[in-house]
Write a structure and sequence with these properties.
The chain is of the alpha+beta class. It has 6 helices and 6 strands; from the N terminus they run E-H-E-E-E-H-H-H-E-E-H-H.
């Protein structure tokens, strides 16, 4: 977990410009890339992060006056494991139809809670899980890339497909349903490692866009 102080050197920090961009990066479909300046050593890339939450803390500004500062809780994008004692998301899905799962996923992806620490990490996992469950339900056992049935059924009796984040080089962490597809293992690996992976990924983005547009209508 990385605690990141927002922008603004004088007066209370507000959700404008960079601060708003960090809080709303998921709904805006933007990647959150963090760099650290090491003086003469240059700039080091820390990785791709997700905003798991934020808090307001009393700090001093550049003139040593007390003000409300925004502190973001950032987590590496490939960290999506459940927090200890977190209930399985599947238990929350019982009796929920596709429209309900979609509403839950959109709400999860488009809201950044005012939470910190373990609560922020738990919120991040639940947001990721909500999006994942909806995307798998949306696919209904058919790969959203090659349109072929899932290669096998899991021990839980569910068609096996893998969530793929179309805007990332790696997969993990929460995202918006507009940018996550459910694909078979073969398509997943071809997208990441195949000669025409980028073309296949673009086609998947279009397929997801059409499905989401139909759901909106």
């Amino acid at each position: 977990m990385l605690r990141y102080f927002g922008e603004g050197q004088v007066g209370d920090m507000v959700f404008e410009r960079g601060n708003r961009a960090i809080r709303d990066h998921l709904v805006d479909g933007k990647d959150l890339l963090i760099f650290h300046t090491h003086g003469r050593e240059g700039v080091r890339f820390l990785g791709q992060f997700e905003c798991a939450g934020y808090s307001h803390e009393i700090r001093t500004d550049r003139f040593s006056r007390s003000r409300s500062a925004i502190v973001f809780e950032l987590v590496l994008a490939n960290v999506g494991e459940p927090v200890k004692d977190e209930e399985p998301i599947e238990e929350l899905d019982l009796g929920v139809d596709l429209a309900g799962l979609r509403a839950r996923a959109l709400e999860a992806a488009r809201s950044t809670p005012q939470v910190t620490g373990t609560a922020a990490r738990r919120s991040l996992y639940r947001r990721s899980a909500a999006v994942r469950r909806y995307v798998l339900a949306r696919a209904a056992g058919i790969c959203e890339s090659c349109n072929q049935p899932a290669p096998f059924v899991t021990q839980r009796g569910e068609p096996y497909l893998e969530p793929h984040h179309t805007r990332r080089l790696s997969d993990g962490g929460p995202d918006d349903p507009r940018f996550v597809g459910a694909v078979c293992p073969s398509c997943h690996r071809e997208i990441h490692h195949g000669l025409h992976g980028s073309t296949k990924n673009d086609a998947l983005i279009q397929a997801i866009s059409q499905k989401e547009a139909s759901a909106e209508g």
